[in-house]
Inverse folding.
């Protein structure tokens, strides 16, 4: 186990991995399809994350690929302290995610597929609200909000419009701004570009690249876009039904599966696992999808 | 020491942020609130007219006093409704919008988060309660020559500490059942008030309800406020109603936080915070 090294002790920080996950497990309860003799439907545990281990160095970007229901969002939620785990361990800059959530929360922020805002409130109001929880005063947000919106490519003069009047792409940019406003050292991006038009997608990707260059942030990106993964990530991982099959540079991944493209590697990885697993989990896959 | 001061400042900024957010939202829905206020006034009138009705059908009754007493009950009912509603909305609304995950992953203690909701709920509830009281009082041209409104306000504010503690327990319900949890808040409000002598003295209740009355903060709130408004009891005289409120409050708040914490753990274990994705 790593000793608890406070992230503020300059020199030692480098020694502590940004993220260290070992044998992490998360189960959910699901109702059975069939009723038992008493006519009640029992519940059974279904694993969403089954023994995932990996680590990330500070400043690194990794991309996690995986089919629908493979557990990407569950992993992100575990790391954001939104879910309690059922086994294993996760540390962020040395802090136990489940045992010491407070310092972890300070360091992490997240963007998810769904932008999630108070629809009647404006972008500026939503951002101010989110930032207060991180201790930012009205004075600080008044300055920071227009700045950050500018950076994510949101027309700053529209910041007083209600969120419900903004397009999805715009909302997603505000979501990015919300995550960045609190200067997280670990950024969890859960399909940030899903559902965006090609131009907005490109803008968001460009912005992520810009972050990698200029900021000291470590990024975990979950995506269905293989090109995006290849272009942005130092290492690419494949999550398949709760198991992390591989996590390595895209080139190595292709070589491992003897594939020319990442797409082929992805199919090879998830397809082969499918045959190996056998029938037991087939009905789960059906529910996942 | 410095670190503690810094942490406290951070917490208070978070608390103020919740108040600020509620101000924004209330501003957006202000006309709906105004319409709802009309409903509250109408509802209160249906109760306060009862005294006149009794007199008209031959009963012998001090109409001015009875109407004022009923009005106090109706105002407390409305006040509690507002406070509980805001508190249950702390979770329910955010869960609906999907922002709950962002709020729950932020480095702010739950006490301050809920505290922000509580502070706003109490302030907003007080404004509405005072407005309601005087609008309806004017309607009946009630005379309250000896009323000590200051003492009444103090009693209501002290009682609000307990109401807040109980409201926290209500607030946790939408975490468990997002669709129906909020409605249980009304159940709690109803049970508490029916046992606390909202429109009648507690003595008329069956014994087991009187037992509930002794531990219900609303009993002391109603008694103290009636004493202050009807009999002009000052702060010194309402003290027998204030100290039980302080004790109940001192128990309710930590208990409320504990229940909420349990609910939050349950939600995090079973993945109840997410709405989609
Ligand atoms: N809150 C929850 N309650 C019950 N089961 C859940 C919950 N969240 C996730 N699951 C289950 O856990 C598994 C993993 O889901 P998760 O959302 O992590 O997948 P994902 O990889 O993000 O999928 P997608 O690509 O569709 O976003 C799925 O089987 C899902 O049904
Ligand atoms: Mg997902």
């Amino acid at each position: 186990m790593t000793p608890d090294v406070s992230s503020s002790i300059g020199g030692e920080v480098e020694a502590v991995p940004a993220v260290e996950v070992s044998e992490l497990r998360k189960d959910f309860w699901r109702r059975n399809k069939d009723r038992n003799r008493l006519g009640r439907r029992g519940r059974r545990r279904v694993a969403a994350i089954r023994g995932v281990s990996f680590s990330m160095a500070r400043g690194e970007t990794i991309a996690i690929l995986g089919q629908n229901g493979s557990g990407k969002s569950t992993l992100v939620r575990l790391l954001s302290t939104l879910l309690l785990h059922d086994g294993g361990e996760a540390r962020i800059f040395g802090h136990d995610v489940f045992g010491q959530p407070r310092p972890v929360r300070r360091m992490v922020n997240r963007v998810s597929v769904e932008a999630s805002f108070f629809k009647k409130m404006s972008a500026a109001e939503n951002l101010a609200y989110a930032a207060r929880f991180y201790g930012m005063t009205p004075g600080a947000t008044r300055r920071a909000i227009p700045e950050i919106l500018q950076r994510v490519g949101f027309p700053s003069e529209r910041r007083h419009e209600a969120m419900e009047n903004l397009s999805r792409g715009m909302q997603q940019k505000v979501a990015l701004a919300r995550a960045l406003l609190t200067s997280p050292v670990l950024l969890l991006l859960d399909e940030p570009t899903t559902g965006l038009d090609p131009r907005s997608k490109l803008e968001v990707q460009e912005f992520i690249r810009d972050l990698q260059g200029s900021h000291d942030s470590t990024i975990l990106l979950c995506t269905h876009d293989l090109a995006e993964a290849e272009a942005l990530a130092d290492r690419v991982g494949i999550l398949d039904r709760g198991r992390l099959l591989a996590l390595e540079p895209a080139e190595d991944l292709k070589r491992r599966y003897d594939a020319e493209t990442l797409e082929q590697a992805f199919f090879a990885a998830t397809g082969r696992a499918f045959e190996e697993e056998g029938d037991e989990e087939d009905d789960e896959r059906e529910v996942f999808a | 020491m410095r670190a503690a001061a810094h942490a406290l400042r951070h917490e208070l900024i978070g608390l103020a942020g919740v108040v600020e957010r509620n101000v924004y939202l209330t501003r957006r829905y202000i006309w709906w609130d105004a319409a709802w206020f009309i409903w509250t006034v109408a509802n209160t009138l249906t109760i306060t007219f009862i005294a006149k009705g009794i007199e008209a059908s031959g009963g012998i009754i001090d109409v001015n006093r009875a109407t004022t007493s009923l009005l106090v009950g109706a105002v407390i009912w409305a006040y509690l409704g507002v406070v509980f509603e805001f508190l249950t909305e702390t979770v329910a609304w955010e869960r609906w919008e999907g922002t709950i995950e962002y709020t729950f992953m932020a480095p702010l203690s739950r006490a301050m988060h809920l505290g922000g909701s509580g502070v706003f709920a109490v302030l907003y509830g007080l404004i509405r309660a005072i407005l309601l009281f005087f609008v309806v009082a004017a309607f009946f041209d009630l005379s309250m020559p000896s009323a000590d409104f200051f003492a009444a306000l103090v009693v209501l504010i002290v009682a609000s500490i307990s109401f807040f503690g109980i409201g926290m327990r209500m607030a946790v319900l939408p975490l468990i059942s997002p669709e129906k949890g909020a409605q249980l808040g009304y159940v709690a409000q109803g049970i508490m008030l029916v046992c606390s002598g909202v429109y009648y003295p507690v003595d008329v209740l069956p014994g087991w309800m009187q037992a509930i009355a002794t531990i219900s903060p609303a009993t002391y709130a109603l008694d103290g406020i009636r004493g202050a408004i009807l009999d002009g009891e000052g702060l010194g005289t309402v003290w027998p109603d204030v100290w039980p409120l302080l004790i109940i409050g001192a128990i309710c708040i930590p208990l409320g936080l504990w229940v909420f914490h349990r609910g939050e753990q349950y939600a995090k274990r079973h993945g109840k915070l997410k709405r989609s994705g």
User: Anything to note?
Assistant: Residues 1-13, 277-289 of chain A have pLDDT under 50 and may be disordered. The radius of gyration of chain A is 20 Å. The first strand of chain A starts at residue 19 and ends at 35. The pocket of magnesium ion (ligand 2) is lined by residues A 72-73, 190; B 277 (CB under 6 Å).
